[in-house]
Amino acid sequence: MSKIYTDVENLEHRKPFNSGVIFGDMSGRPQWSGDRRTFIKTTGAAGVAGLTGFAGCLGGEAADIQLVLNPAEAGVDIQVQYRPLIEYIESEAEVSINTERTAGYTETVTAMRDGQAEISGVSPGAVPATDPEIFDIIGMRVAFGSAQYYSTITTTFDSPVDELADISELDEPEVNFADALSVSGTLVPMSMLVDAGVDVGNAPDGDPPDFDPNYSDHQTSREQMVQREDIVAAGQGAFQSAPWIEQEQFDEHSEDFADISSEYPDAGSRIGDEHDELQLLALSDPIPRAPMVARADWDDPVREDVEEAMLTAPDSAFQHDEEVDEDEELWFTGIVEADRSDYEPIQLIIDNLAIEFEDLI
């Protein structure tokens, strides 16, 4: 039976990691360590109903615009993380923006659908999975110049799994994933399992025959896999796993990872920090990075100014003026124009899984 780890108390005690979140780049700025990649903190108590009354906007006044963002990792203050960009948009478009974190990708899309937010950052998978009448794409978030990122499936070196096919031979093994709608944390890992001959059934919309899935976030997926012997493997974005994987392992799986992924320079940099090296079982093909979106029926003259500010924001709009913790650094360094056609590769993943995304949302 699948499990969803969303209990705030259980997440709070963990050391905050960061997730630049499945998006890496190379823009002139120094490479960040794996710690600079995070979306938002998971809050199991933050239901969609709670989004109707967001707490104070960053500008200190009643918010003109609601911005909702979904978590990829636990332990991050989203308002601190996004402050530079939000303050820039507020200044350029003369608006006030309130930010609110949601408990997951599904809740974020639901908030947009129900008119509870004007702008949002969503998973790449939300694009082919969501009716175009719900949101329009403003642009694709890029990190240090890269518009693509990778998904991984990892395990420990003392695990009974040496290759993905081994999972089918074990008795009721558990496998960790991120949010059910996460591309790099769930959908791509599920697709890689399918390609390896593992029976995933109609997961993540149901329980797979060959293993028991646990859904949480990228950080929790990694942490619990290391901590618990019954969890034999875990799917997560390379932004989360790479610091515990030596570069040589990536080289063995892909000739392009070193050139495309911003995680490559930091690969292996945290081995021995929290735990030993992870074994890389599978590495995906490149995945288009996550977009910023606007509610499709948002009809306000200020919308054009807000979107223009996002697409033309200077480097400084993505950097804090003051020193902040690494996990509070914004994971992306720019937003470039994009449309739904840029996310067609995600549809191939959905087709490979033979799932109906609407059922998940």
UniProtKB/TrEMBL annotation:
Signal peptide residue numbers: none
Superkingdom of the organism of origin: Archaea
Annotated InterPro entries: TAT_signal_bac_arc (IPR019546)
Transmembrane segments: none
Pfam families: Phosphonate-bd (PF12974)
Name of this chain's protein: Phosphonate transport system substrate-binding protein
Record organism: Halalkaliarchaeum desulfuricum
